[in-house]
Every structure is written in C-alpha cells, then in structure tokens.
Amino acid sequence: MLKVEGLNVSYGDLQVLWDVSFEVKEGEIVVLLGANGAGKSTTLKTVSSLVKPTTGSVEFLGARLDRVPSHKVINHGLAHVPEGRRLFPEMTVEENLIVGSLTREAKAKRKTTLEWLYDIFPRLKERIKQPAGTLSGGEQQMVAIARGLMSLPKLIMFDEPSLGLAPIMVTEIFKVVEMVNREGVTVLLVEQNVHHTLAMCNRAYVLENGRITLSGTGEEFLNNDHIKEAYLGI
Amino acid sequence: MKRPSGPFLLLVLLLILPLILRDAYYQHLMILVLMWVAIGSGWNLISGYTGQVLFGAAAFFGFGAYTAALLSSKLGISAWWGLPLGGILSVAIAFPFGWICFRLRGPYFALATLALNEIFRHIATIWESLTDGMIGILVMQTFISKLPYYYVALAIAIFSIVTVDLVMRSRWGYYFVSIREDQDAAESMGIDTLHYKMLSLCISAFLIGIAGALYTNYMGFIDPKVVFSLHEISIMAILVGIVGGVGTIYGPLVGAFIMVAVQEIFRTGGFGILHFIGQSTGWPFMSGIIKYVSEAHVLSFGILVIVVILFLPNGIVGDWSLIRKSLVNSKKPAV
Amino acid sequence: MDVFLQTLVAGVLKGGLYALIGLGMTLIMGVMGIINLAHGQFMMVAMYITYVLFHFFGLDPYTTLIISMPSLFLLGVLIQKYLLNPLMKVESILPENQVLMTVGIAMVLTEIARFIFSSNYLSVRTSYSSSAFYLGGISFSVALTVAFGFACFLTLSLFWFLIKTDLGRSIRAVSQDAEAAELMGIDSGRIKVVTMGIGAGLVAAAGTLLLPIYYLFPDIGGPFTRKAFIITILGGLGSTVGAIFGGLTLGLAESFGATYIGMDFEDLVGLVIFLLVLLFVPGGFKRFTKV
Amino acid sequence: MRISSFRLLAIVSSLLISIGLSYAAEGPIKVGVVLPLTGEQAKFGEIEKNSLVMGLEEINKAGGVNGRQIELLIEDDTGKPDVGRSAVEKLISQDKVVALTGGYSSSVTYAVCAVAQQHKTPFLVSTGSSDKITEQGWNFVFRIAPPVSEYPKALNSFLSEIVKPQSVAILYENTLFGQSGAKEFAEQCEKSGIKVLIKEGYEAGAVDFKPLLIKVKAAKPDFVYMVSYVMDAALLMRQSKELNFNPKLFVGGGAGFTLPEFAKNAGNAAEYVFSADLWSPQLPYPGAKEYFENYKKRYGGPTEYHGAEAYGCVYVVADALKRAKELTPAAVRDAMAATDLMTAFGPVKFVSYGKKKQQNALPTYLVQWQKGILETVWPKNVATKPYVYPVPEWSGR
Amino acid sequence: MAFFKVQGIVKFFGGLAAVNGVSFEVKEGEICGLIGPNGSGKTTIFNLINGYFPLTKGEIQFQDEKISGLKTHQICQRGVGRTFQVVKPLKRMTVLDNVIASAFLRHHPRSDAIKLAEETIEFCGLTHYKDKIAKSLPIASRKRLEITRALATQPKLILLDETAAGLNPHELEEAIALIKKIRDSGITIIIVEHIMKVIMTISDHIVAINHGMVIAKGSPTEVVSNPEVIKAYFGEDYRA
C-alpha cells in the first residue's frame, strides 16, 4: 500500500535520514520506533510531502507522493496526525473536525462521518462547541485523531499520540488506535512507548540516527535486547 | 596591517570636492548627501547592526532640529550650539523612547517607533507657545557661502561613519550584532540586551539629532511637518539604509548619494537632458515626457524599494559581490 | 447631555467604518503575520475606482461596491502572489523586509494615483451626501449611517464566511497553524493570496462607503493606514472580533478626545491609546473578548 | 571591493556634473520660478504655473521686454524646503537667472528667499503667506500678496460697522496658514472687545467635525471664524447644517471658502457663508475679468486668487526688467523696488511698514456665497451685490 | 553547602504544570545528566535555571547565592553558561566573532577577548573553521560552536542541551571527548541528552524526569534499572 524506498533527507546541510525504506500493507498497524531525534517525525513528514527528500521515493497506492505538494497528499487517502496534535486552538471541536474533511469525497460524506466519529468518541460530542485549545491533552489528542479520520483516509499516520499524556490516557489512546484499525483503516504509528505499541502492531521498524536498523513483527521485537540498547544505552 | 586606501582617497576627494565643484547647486546637493549620511548611519546602527528597525528616525531628527531652532529663537544663543546640544537632547529623548519601544520586538517595535514619531509631530504642532506650531521657526543663516556648511556637514558625516566604524569594532559592536542575530543567544552569553539596545539607540539618536540641528542651521527654517515628517525623514532614512546596504559602514554613504541623485535626476528631468533634447529637436511630446519624469521621483523611490528588497535584500554595498558577479558574468544567474 | 450623546453617536458611526478598515488588516495580519502598511492605499485605490465610475458612468457610489471590492480583491491577490509570496524565499538581514515591502507598495500606489488623477481633491456628491435625520435632537448623517449599516452587514457577512464556509474555515486554520492546515489539504500559499484579496476587498468597501461624505486625493491613504494598524493592535493581532472592538474604541476615543480634550488632540488620543495598549495589554482587547 | 565601489561612485558623479555643466543655452532673459508641481500642493503650483505662462505669453507676444523675450525656467520644489532650495540654487548658479518668482508654501518660500538674498537675486514672492517672510529685512525679497495676518482686514470693518458681535469661535487647521491666521484674528478680536469663546485647531483631513461643532454650538458664539482648506471647509459647513447650528455668521478666513469646489462640495450648506478674500474677477482692476475668462478658456477650469497673484507677478517682473538699467540681478532689484504698477491682481507698490519691508499693501475683501455665486459684498464701493445679513437659519435657507 | 541547588521549582504554562516541584543538587566538578522521555520538561528546566522563563515557585541557588529571579544575562555573569537544543549561532558572524562576542564578558580590551576566543576555539577543536561564517558550518560544528561560545564566557557551570543529537557515531565520540575535557578543566556540567550512550558513559550522577517531576536520582546504573524510569520509557507494564 505504502512503499518508501531509499529516502535521504536533509535539513540544509544536516542529513537526518539515510536510505530509509519500509513498507505498510493494507490493514496493518506498522510501528516506527526510535529514540528522540532518530528521524521518526521527519520520516512521516517526508511521507506526507511536508519535507522533500533529496533522493528516494514515496509510493502510495501507485502514486508518487514525493512529487505531490503537501496539501494534495490528503486527496490520495493518506492522513497525518502530527506530533503535538497541532489543533487549531481557537476553533471549536466541531470546526476542527470539519477542517479535516475538505476533500471532495470527504465533504460529501461529512455529516455521516461526523456521526460515526461522535459514536467512537462520545466525549467529543459533549464538547462540540468548545474551543479546541481549552480541552485537556487527552481530549485534544482524540480531536486530532478524529480530525485525521474526517478525510476518510485509507491510511492514517500517528506521530507520537501518547506524548505528554497521563498513563491512563495513554492506554485509552492506544485503544482508539486499535479501534481505528479495526474499522478498516491502515495505521502507521510512530512511538516511543515501546510496550503498548509492540503488543498491538503487526510489524515494526526501528530507526536509529536516521537509519532503519531493525525490522520484524511485534512479537519478535518484544524479546529483542537491541531495543533496550537503543533506548537506554545498556 | 595596511590601512585600506579606499576610504582615504574618498576622504581626500570629499575634502577638495567643493573647491573643484564651485557650483553652489552641486555643493548644496552634496551638503544634503552628507546630512543623509549622518541620518543613514544613525538609522543603520540601531536598525542594520542591532536589528531593531526604526520607523521613527524623524523623532530624533526633529528633536535635534528644534533644539537648535529654540536655542536661537527662545534663548538667543547661536543655533550652532544646537549641533552638540541637539545630539545630547536627542539622546535624552531616546531613553523614554527606548523604554517604551524595547518592550516590543520585531514589527511591533517598528510600529511603536512610528507611533512615537507621529506623537512628537503632533506635540510640536499643538504646542504653539513653545514651537510656534506650524508657523515654524526661523533661524538666520550664518554664512552666505556654502563652504562652511559643506565642511561642517562633511565633519558630521565623517564623525558618523567613524563613530559607527569604531563602535562596530568595539565590544559594543559585537554585542549589537549578537543582539540582531539572536536575542536569546545574546542574553545567554551574558549580554544585557535591553541595556545594549538602549545604548545603540542613544548613539543613533545622537547622530540623527546632530543631523537635525545641521538642517536647522543650514536651511534656516523648520516646522513640524518638515522635520518630524514620516515620509520625508523616517521613511527616507530607511530607504537610505536599505538601498545602500543594511549593516554596512559605507552603505549609508552610497544610499544617501543614490537617493539624493535619484530625486534630483527625476525632478530636473535628467539634469535638463530631456529638456535639452526637447528643445534641440523640437519634438512636442518631449515636454509631456519631462512632466511625467519629473513627477515620477517618489514613484521611483517606491519602485527602488520593491526592487531592492526583492533582488538585493542586503542593499547595494551588502550585495555588492552579487551585483559584480552578475555584471561580470551576466549570462549566468548570480547566486 | 446632548453634547455627550452626539459625541457618542459620532464615535460609534465612525467606529463602524474604522472596524471595517481594521478587519481587512487584521485578517492579513492573522494569516500572513504581515503588518500591511499599504492598507490605506488600497482604500485610496478603491475610492478612485468609485470616483471614476460615478463621474464617468454615473453609477451610484453604493452600487460601485460590486466593482470596487472585486477590483481590490484582484489587486490584493496580485500583490500577494507576485510581490509578497516570493519574498518568503528571500533571505535578508532585517526580518521586517515584508513590512518595508508594503511601504514600497504604498508609495507606488500613491504615486500612480497622482500620475493619473493629479493631486487635486476629488469628491462624489450625491443627494444623500449632506442630508441628516434626527433622533431626539441627535443628528445622524444619512451617508455615515448607511456606511455604518453596510459596515455591520459586511462584518456579519465576513463572520458568516469565516465560520460557515470551508474557505473561511481554511483561512482561520492557516492563521492558527499553517503546517497543520497543509496536512488537512489546505494550500496555505493560495489561502494567503485569497486572504490578501479579501483584506483589500474589505478596505475597498470602507473607502467606497466613505467617499460620499468625504473626499479624495492621492495622499489620503497614509492616515488611514495608521488608523488601520492602531485598530489592529488595539483589537489584538489577528482577532476579527477584536478588530471591531478596536475600530469602535478608536472611533469613540477620537470623538471623545475631540469633544472633551480638543480637536487638536484627536489623532494624539488614538496614538497614545495605541501605545498604552501595546505596552500594557499585550494581547490587545482580544484578551477581554475571548474569541 | 570597497575601492571599486567608490570608483563607480566617482565616475557616476563626474558624469552627472559634466552633464549639468554642458547644459547652458544662450537666449532670452531668464527668470526663475519655484513652485510645487508635484506632491500635495501641486494643485496650486499648477494654477500659478498656468497663470505665469499665460501672462508670459501675453507679454512676449506684445514684444517682450525692450525687444527681448522673457523665458521662465520653472522648477519643481515638491513642497519640501530642501528640494526648493536645490531648485533655486540651480536656477541662480547654473541658469544665471536675473530674477526669481513663485513660492507657494511658506516653509519652502522662506528657505528659497534666504538663498535669493544671499546670492543677491531679486525674488518676487507670489504667495508664501507667512508674515515673517518680509520681516527679515531682506532687500532682495518682495511679496505681491498680503501676509496672512491681513487677510481679514475687510472682515474687521464689516464686523465693527454692521454685525457688532460679542463673541466668536475660531476654528483652524493645524497648518501655518491656519495657525497664524487664527492667532492674528484672535488678537484682533480681543483688541476690539470680541470675546474668543473657543479657539481650536484640528489636523487637516479629519473625517468628522461633529464633536468639535457640537462643542462650539453649545458655547453659543455670535459668529464662527474658520481658517480651513476647501474640503475641510465643505465638511465643516455640511456638518454644521446637519447639527442645525445657527450662529449669526459663518466666516471663512480665505483659502478654502472662496473656491468653486467649496460650493460644489458643501452644496446648499455653502449658502450665505462669508469669507475673507484677496481677489475676485469682479474687482475693478484692469484685466481681472479677462484673466479669469482666458484662464478658463485655456485650461478648462476656474482660477482663483493664487493664480491672480502669479499672473500679477509676471507683469511686475516684466515691468521691472523693462525699467532696469542693465540686466543684472542688482539692477533688476532696484527697478523692482521702484515698482508702481496696476495689475489684474491689483495695484502693486512695495512699501515698508511695521516690521515688514518691500511688502505690497493691498486692500482685502469680504465675499459671500449667494445662490451658488461668490459675490463681493464688502467694502461697499467694490461690492457686486449687497450682503445678506442677518443670515436666515438653516431651516429658512 | 551545595555548589548548585534546585529547590522545588514549579513552572506553569497557562494552567499546565510543565515542571512540578523538581529538586536536585549538583556537586562541583561533576557531570549531572538530566534524562526523561520527550516532553517531560528537561529543556524547560534549563530555561528556568537560565532565567529565560520566570519561576512560578521554588528557588535556584548557585554557589550559595539565589539566582532565580535574576535576568538571563545576570545569571550568565554569575558563571552559568548554556547551549541551546536548537542551535542559535550568530548566523552572519564568523566563528571567531561569535566567540569573541562571548569572550568580551570577562575580558575587556579587544585583544584580550580575541586571545581568549582563539584559545577556546583551539580547545574545542574549531580552529579549522575559525574564519567561516557561522551559518555555513555543518551541524556538528555548529553544536560545537554553541559549546565554544558558552565556554568563552568562562562559566563555572555549563548547561548542555542535546549537544549530541543529530551527530554521526564518529562525531559522537568527539563530542563525548570534548565534554570530558571540559569537565577535566574544572567546569561543572549539567547535560540533557537523549542518546543514552552518551549520558551513560559520562554522567557521574543522573536525574530522571517524567511529567515535570523527578522520578529517580542516582548513579547511571541505578537510574536505568529503576522501574519508574523503565515505565516512563517503555510504558506501563514492560517487562524489563
């Protein structure tokens, strides 16, 4: 479904990704693991064309996304829920969601999508008219996820959805991610939170210093010491 | 280290220029250029080097000009004392000015200085008992010949350039540029940014204030609309700065020369060339062209600003290497 | 009491017009982060368009809105597309070069107007230009009241547009988080162009509405640019509701200043309030409006 | 890098200089003119320029000066003193003019006069109305127009003979013209026992005068004296009408209140408004009416007193050139000082009184808008129509 | 008496506590590592020590003097230098000028400042880049320039914020060597670092933070085996 091959990405003269390749198949949950600064967010930004690679390609359902301007990526059925949620703080919850459905198809189904999402996130329904900036961190994350789903994507990318959340909220967010996947949306997840993600993912890749150093199934990873080394340096 | 000979040659040229160029008209233009060098240098120090874009240079210019004029009209002291005093009082006004404006950064700083500029102009207009309002103040000119004014203006211009040059070579200069490049980094390097921004503003105010006092002495007449003018002084100061080269020692010199020259070329229809062509050929449409050209001098300033900002963002001196490259090697894009 | 009420009415009516001027500037500020120092000059251009249509084609000034607003929209679009957007890529020592660019644009617009129309004062005289009606001894200028009404209407339309349409929501999204907006499929470059157009269109409306009671010459832009940025900062940068508060505040401050301090101080009062707000209420009146 | 940039500078500057010097043509008698032809004041510069050119052509057609033609070298001062000075320096030192005229804004005129005086070149000021210009003891500076303080001369006699008011409100624009006009008038009122209830300036270009006017209305002055320029004047009158403010008189201090645009813009609110005036085509001066008609025919628009001043100037200059012993600036000055000429603008004779030197002393007039026409109503001997006083209330107009 | 002491510092942004009651001490001459997952508040703590943000509550002491409440530049003058996570070089100045600007803090005649700057550049191994414009440097050198500039203020305590992020293995080795060299020259160091390899090898003492609170303190091995720390990094029920 999504095929990333040989990505090299630099910010000015600072190269952050070195020959990164990976693949996501339809219906999967794939996790990109890695310590801070390893290049996870950059990878996602490159996939959604916010950052242009120096070499390499991003292919999604037969289209070369790296050749598409970033605002058109969503038309191909790929949504990106960015790190730090990035809601529109002065707009209400509902408006945030609506802005997620600006593509033609999504717009046509806006009403039903909204109802569907309010079913999934009953908590948001209570806060439709509240400015997004006034919500708690967990609620904001839910709005961000829901906003991503509003475009009815075939694949959705989450960038550290558990960041800065209390442990209980983290568990809940991951439940949501699994649920989204059960609804038939393929998921590409970037996380630090190793345990949760590995337990639920189909496959995982490890990024270290801008390079993919490991790949395999979740089970394989749970028992691999390399992860621990990458994270804790022991 | 060998001293660069360029500035020295220039100095000699400027010193003997009025002796070669006896024409009072060109001497007058040169005096204006030199006055703008001082204003431009002052603007450049706070804006170009310290990075705090000043939209209110006229506040200091007007203050210096009024200091000189009031000395003469109210106290009967020679307006020439206005040169040092105008500078000093401009520094005094720079303190509250800075206290207000330096709470703000970037464009907000710029707007605050613009607002203060306007406030000063209004006060000078309304406070008729002191300033005579728009009736203005007359100061009798001391000399008939242009030469004394020329050399005073030259001295002020040299003083400005040398001051800025010396400051920029000193610790202060390093601090000013550090503040421009990154205020947070500067703070964490132990630089009291507020203090040094204020210092920079004070030096700027001093130079611009002296130029204002020179204006009073030379022109002999001031009113609030002339010396506190947003367009003729504040914006013009910015133009001199950015056209010549932001953050360069000799940028204001080049900028002042170009701005005065452009104004005169347009105003006079290419120093009479168009007129001459019109007369010698007898083409009737030449007079129309002359009219349009002479009306276009402010338009040309506007276009100059747009072109410089888009293509020479660092001004003529700042982007000199770029210009030279494109002149020498015009086929290839100069980057 | 009459003096007070008449001052109040004068301030509110003028404030409505100011709000309209400030709204466009605020919108531009919010989305582009640019202080548009050519805003008053946009207004001047619109006034000339109205003048020409009235003078040569006999169109009523109010009907010329349907031409002046789209024309200025186009002007704004062209300026953003060909002068301001390319500037994003130019690296310069002074980050304020966008503001300086708008100063250059303002000069060029003014001088082009002078080229075409000379410096003469021009005006548009209609039957309602100098008529007034009275409510309890308080006089309401017909044209100013109509202008106020139009200003309210346009303001409400703008709100409707910003809140209810996808394009409006996109504009707000870009102003709050441009990168996130890109991820939602919004072309922020295009939104900037459109926003500049809308901002110019709004101030065009203000100019056209003002013309029947005022007059016109090329340098009229400068004072209105100054008023516009005062309003924008009073209102809290980028806040549309704030711009209305800012406009009314400035209108009232000027009127009450003129009545109770002195007409000399009219402009001064505005400027001093501007500085005070800038210094002591960093968010402008946005702080008190919560929107 | 530095050196080469300076070399370029040197080349450019020497090029400019050589061009400037090479342009010096032989020909007719040269007279310099400094006027604002661009910028905010261009409108008046244009009227004065047109009038000068018209007068010049008439003179040249009639044989010029002693058989020689006159050439006017007209320079734009853009309304800025430093630029005006550039212009006059150029006229004197490069074009070697024998006399100068023009001068619209007072600040520019002052700067320019100082230069003329220093270079001993006679300067006949057409407008520059600041009193101070002829108070400097400059013997090369002459002024054809009365200074701003004398504009309301005729008004004063009208007030003391007919209206006998107790109180006045003075409104003025914050320009040299407004501030000095208001100051002088307030002093004159105090002297003649008229109480100044309100004296308040405003920044030219205000949108709304109502706050000011309701305050004035509440103070109930007998009459209102306004020194305003045309558009502000029209707004003031319109808004006075809207406020139904009915003092005994509205009087303009010249400038804006006498122009056709005022009547056009104020509409019926202009009716019965008085104004001080320096000149009108109905005055019994030879050529006044013809000048007005010819101007209208040739330039398609009406002229007013600024134009008449300039038109008078060119005749005065020609007269002085004619009488000058030789064509040097000093001789022309001497001839000009002895001027005694009747022009379309009025009699011209340069006299010294008070602090003033070489100032043309002219009577001024009171005019009133009646049925959309500006009629001269005072002094009686030159009146074209009797004055309308008392003025009916707004509801009765 | 502690050399450097942070006592119950609290920082609220809006209603959220970014730092909530953090206390720790640093002894003279040691390297103290500050670790924690992304967003746990480490950089905020640096900004509080450095005076960039005012404290909501608590106190910071340096050499028995209260430094909280002072301005950033005053804190620097007291002898606390810092580097930034996102490097802030003075872009249009040369490397030498960057460092001279710092060196002026304690060395007034220009010649002295230049001498110190050159020595510091030498010390940090940037001599090769001395006359280059700062913005043209590769990232590793820019990070090094941050350290050089901080050292030129001759601090007694230096705060290093992610000095090693984005470096390749070879550069990493060099960075570690430099940090050790700085410590050996008698300067106390507090370091925030994500690359555990770096922090484990050089720290004498580690403070782990999560959600703006201290969850563990002690030697590197102690902290890494602390269940709270593992939980913070790997999630609730990771089996270590």
Describe the protein's topology:
The complex is a heteropentamer of chains A (234), B (335), C (291), D (397) and E (240).
Chain A: E1 2-11, E2 14-24, E3 29-33, H1 40-47, E4 55-60, E5 63-64, E6 78-81, H2 93-99, H3 104-108, H4 110-120, H5 122-125, H6 137-149, E7 155-159, H7 167-182, E8 186-191, H8 194-200, E9 203-208, E10 211-217, H9 218-222, H10 225-232
Parallel strand pairs in A: 3-8, 3-9, 6-7, 7-8
Antiparallel strand pairs in A: 1-2, 1-4, 4-5, 9-10
Chain C: H1 2-32, H2 39-57, H3 65-84, H4 97-117, E1 132-135, E2 138-141, H5 142-164, H6 166-176, H7 178-183, H8 188-210, H9 221-234, H10 240-261, H11 266-280, H12 286-289
Antiparallel strand pairs in C: 1-2
Chain E: E1 4-13, E2 16-26, E3 31-35, H1 42-49, E4 57-62, E5 65-66, H2 72-78, E6 80-82, H3 95-103, H4 110-124, H5 139-152, E7 157-161, H6 169-184, E8 188-192, H7 196-202, E9 205-210, E10 213-218, H8 220-225, H9 227-234
Parallel strand pairs in E: 3-8, 3-9, 6-7, 7-8
Antiparallel strand pairs in E: 1-2, 1-4, 4-5, 9-10
Give a verbal description of the structure.
The complex is a heteropentamer of chains A (234), B (335), C (291), D (397) and E (240). Chain A is α/β, with parallel strands linked by helices. In chain A, 36% of the residues lie in helices and 26% in strands. Chain A has a 6-stranded mixed β-sheet, with helices on both faces. In chain A, strands 2-1-4-5 form a 4-stranded antiparallel β-sheet, covered by helices on one side. The termini of chain A are far apart. Chain B has a single domain, classed as ABC transporter involved in vitamin B12 uptake, BtuC, CATH 1.10.3470. Chain B has a two-stranded antiparallel ribbon with strand order 1-2. In chain B, helix 7 packs across helix 8 (171-181). Chain C has a single domain, classed as ABC transporter involved in vitamin B12 uptake, BtuC. Chain C has helices at residues 2-32, 39-57, 65-84, 97-117, 142-164, 166-176, 178-183, 188-210, 221-234, 240-261, 266-280, 286-289; strands spanning 132-135, 138-141. The mean pLDDT of chain C is 88. Classes of the chains: A alpha/beta (234), B mainly alpha (335), C mainly alpha (291), D alpha/beta (397), E alpha/beta (240). At the B-C interface, helix 5, helix 12 and helix 16 of B face helix 4, helix 9 and helix 11 of C.
Category from helices, strands and their pairing of chain A: alpha/beta
For the record, the CATH class of the largest domain in chain D is Alpha Beta
Strand content of chain D: 15-25%
Rounded mean pLDDT score of chain A: 86
Arithmetic mean pLDDT of chain D: 86
What is the CATH superfamily classification of the largest domain in chain D?
A: Response regulator
CATH T-level fold name of the largest domain in chain D: Rossmann fold
State the end-to-end CA separation of chain D.
76 Å
Indicate the percent of residues in helices of chain D.
Answer: 40-55%
* Percent strand of chain A: 25-35%
Tally of helical segments of chain D: 12
Strand order of the largest sheet of chain A: 6-7-8-3-9-10
